[in-house]
Amino acid sequence: MLSAEDISVSLGGTQILSDVSLTAECGDVVGLVGPNGAGKTTTLRLLRATLSPDSGTVRVAGDPIDGLSSKQVSQRVASTPQATELSFEFTVRQAVEMGRTPHLGRFERADSGDREVVAAAMERVDVARFADRPVTSLSGGERQRVLLARALAQETPVLLLDEPTSNLDINHAVNTLELVADLAREGKTAVAAIHDLNLAARYCDELVLLAGGEVRAAGPPREVLTTPTLRDAFDAETLVTGQPATDAPLVTALADRDPLDRTVHVVGTGGQAAGALTRLVAVGATVSVGVVPTGDAAAERARDLDCEAVTVPPFAGVDGNSVSRATELARAADAVVVAGDVGDANESVVAAARRLVAVDGEGVPAIDSPRTIVATVDELPAAVAGVATRNGGPDAERRVESSKQQDR
Ligand SMILES: Nc1ncnc2c1ncn2[C@@H]1O[C@H](COP(=O)(O)OP(=O)(O)OP(=O)(O)O)[C@@H](O)[C@H]1O
Question: Residue ranges of the ABC transporter domain (predicted)?
């Protein structure tokens, strides 16, 4: 078991980590995720005692790591570095044999038992066929696997992996993380910094989301990888759904926000309304939806995107409170977007709109009116921006207000 309790560290006069705590039990794969510069590598350095915290404690199997000799640490913790540089002309076998060093006396030579461990480690990460080649002749991904074999040969209860899949093709990436998961099932504790949130979600039991040197969220992937926490940590808009082959969350990063500083209420159901929501959130609009039946694609998408949804149970009919709330949102919005099947129950919600944009599709004729412009989902941001200024939206209102002031 490995833990960090409230570790803080400064480097070169800058605070890099502040009160970071995490626990990795035997059998756990814990993923460190977060944006570039969040402090993942620094956390791993503290966990393997190549850096000492200014405050806080790292413990391995209950013992404070700063009380252990470097040999004792390397008997308990093996790590694969982020850089795949192995600068000397060692063969793959020699590089993996280095993993046995913590188990040997100062001038002791490796025996047949050590050689078996080395052979098994090379086999397990699929580098045995390169055993006699110089490490420098391998590709980046192959070297990365050699480093993992070296860590396995070290036979430690704890494995620390810094970006173990960054240079790997999809097949080797998945196989490497399957191997890490197997090792955990065999009783090891693994902590891995992983950039790919979807691989992290699939293979880690717990995630620790770091940003700005702080833990922003920690727990099972489903609890950590949510649109609000990812927005907070990465300053990015994401859509979180489910991975088809597993029950892990699937994170899709949406295009960079080109902030559409508008509030938009979406009326409609199904995939078309869900698509409209996604498109509008992607460009930074503040979006709500409703009235929509619970479980409808638009309601689900709103939940994934952390947007307000006015929902009613399916087949229950629409109640007055829901209609009032949706009408209130529609009236306050800079624009109302209608998409997909709007339903009679939403008539008064649509009627409350100051400016309407209809998503090109089946629902359009029903709400056709002179105040409506029709746009495809892709054109929605431009259409919303257009109606909200051209037809007297907030910008126009501001312009009117300032010209009134000038007149005074
Ligand atoms: N020796 C140092 N002196 C000053 N700042 C440092 C030093 N080492 C690291 N940093 C800074 O600490 C911050 C955290 O770095 P770290 O490598 O831990 O981030 P990371 O989350 O692993 O990032 P990445 O995903 O880009 O690998 C970065 O802003 C980095 O520039």
Answer: 2-237
pTM (predicted TM-score): 0.72
Atom of ligand 1 nearest to the CA of 43: 18
Ligand 1 centroid from CA 50, angstroms: 14
Q: Give residue 7 CA to ligand 1 midpoint distance, Å.
A: 15
Quote the pLDDT of residue 102. Answer: 81
Pocket test for ligand 1, best of 11, 46, 80 (most atoms within 8 A of CB): 11
Q: Which of 19-28, 95-104, 161-170, 261-270 is most confident? A: 19-28
Q: Which residues contact 69 (CB under 8 A, 6 or more apart)?
A: none
Using CA atoms in the order 24, 29, 30, 34, what is the torsion angle rounded to 10 degrees? 170
Q: Which of 162, 159, 129, 165 shows the shortest CA–CA distance to 145?
A: 165
What ipTM does this complex have? Answer: 0.97
What does each C-alpha distance from 56 to 6, 23, 39, 64, 207 come to in angstroms?
5, 13, 16, 10, 20
Statement: residue 347 has pLDDT above 90: no
CA of 192 to the centre of ligand 1 (A): 16
Of 235, 203, 183, nearest to 31 by C-alpha is 203
Find the 54 Cα to ligand 1 centroid distance in Å: 16
Residue 294, pLDDT above cutoff 80: yes
Q: Which atom of ligand 1 is nearest to the CA of 39?
A: 18
Segment 378-394 mean pLDDT: 64
Distance 42 CA to ligand 1 centre (A): 6
Residue-level pLDDT at 408: 41
